[in-house]
Amino acid sequence: MIKQLQIKNFRNYKDVKLIIPETDHNIVVLYGNNGEGKTNILESISLFSEMGGLRRAKYEEIINRCIPEDVWSIVLNTPDCEFFTGYTRQSAKRIYKINGNPARNMSDFLKDYCVLWLTYEMDRLFIRSPADRRDFIDMFGSVNYPQHISNVRSYEKLTKQRLKILKNHIHNPNDGDTTKWLDILEDQIVDFGIKIATTRIETVKKLEENQINDGFPAFKNEMTGLLETSILNADNSCRAESYRRELHDRRERDGFSGSTTMGPNKSDWKVLYVGKDIDASMCSAGEQKMLLSGVFLSFVLSHLQSDERRLILLLDDVVAHLDTEHRTLLFSHIRDFMRKHIGKVSVWLSGTSKELFSELKDDAIFFRVRGGFVEEVNYGSKIYG
User: Fold this and answer.
1) How far apart are CA 313 and CA 331, in angstroms?
2) Domains in the chain and their CATH numbers?
3) Phi-psi category of 69—alpha, beta or left, where left has phi over 0 and alpha has psi -120 to 50?
């Protein structure tokens, strides 16, 4: 699926190229010591998604600091196309090309491919901030609903504008022009807010309906928050008006607090571990990891059954703390996806040791990563970069 990946001036890489041999399998394993650059390679692929990459880093931060150049670039080759993206400090803008021709964005890539990731930093997702959990669900939502991330960004922009106006409005509430402008903004916020919340609700519903119970914990999940309970449970004809009234009534509170106190920005994703009937946040670290892995695989299975686009999965150091049983189970599901959906799934995994992936030795292509260099270890010892 990915025939070649070349990254320049990216993180700790000056210029490295990975050539993926043509095989019946689309599994790539990157292994090496901590800090050598495994995650950086996965991050470069994740930048072809709509989510801003698995680190959500500022583009300026990605430039290799050891090289006196002001640009980073990534070239990803598929069997029928070459996709390019990069960033220049001078213009402070992302650059896109398809087969060498300038493009506005990666929409052509997203028509045929989806990129999802699970990282070791997500292990404690259930005890991290609600914003982290919303981002996780939004990653899935962006796959099923192409406008979702655009809606989230529009909503965030509108709420920032509203809060800026409210700082002045609370001191001069009788200003008619300001009141009219707030009415217009809140109408738009209501529209985007309901779309965002509805997408998230539908996304978690599908997760639960398509969950994998083969060895991974059964779960129940839902989106919670004042918007979900007091607005979206109401009759369709009342939702917008109720939401609009709440925003109006909260103007003074929001102006003083500097935050939007009701909306999808206050929602949370709650997961119940069915086996113990407890919230995921109360589970052990191992149980949380198994729950999260099961949720992730559930979405992958649902996607493969209902979406024709090809799927690129990035699993960054996710097997290190899985017990042997669940590591074997994870690999079994990966091989099963590959067998049932030939040519539709590509999986990239990383870890500190190739022995962690010994069960994939006949299925995967192995690369050793060492300080800005990548060595293919199971097809000779050619070093790229």
Assistant:
1) 13
2) 4-384 (3.40.50.300)
3) beta
CB atoms within 10 A of CB 218: 14
Of 127-131, 170-174, 238-242, 325-329, the least confident: 170-174
205: number of Cβ within 10 Å: 13
- Cβ 364 vs Cβ 28: under 8 Å: yes
CA distance 163 to 161: 6
What is the percent of the chain where pLDDT is above 70? 96
d(CA 184, CA 179): 9
Instruction: Please give the model's pTM, rounded to 2 decimal places.
Output: 0.93
Contacts for 254-262: CB closer than 8 Å, 24+ residues apart: 254/162, 254/163, 254/166, 255/163, 255/166, 255/167, 255/169, 255/170, 256/170, 258/163, 258/167, 259/163, 260/159, 260/162, 260/163, 260/189, 262/226, 262/227
> Distance (Å, rounded) from C-alpha 230 to C-alpha 226?
6
List the 219-224 sheet strands across, edge first: 219-224, 268-273, 278-279
Give the phi and the psi of residue 3 in degrees, each rounded to 5: -85, -35
The closest alpha carbon to 138, from 153, 158, 123, belongs to 153
Q: Could you tell me which of 66, 61, 64, 83 has the C-alpha nearest to residue 74?
A: 83
**What type of residue sits at position 211?**
Q
What is the structure's pLDDT at 343? Answer: 86
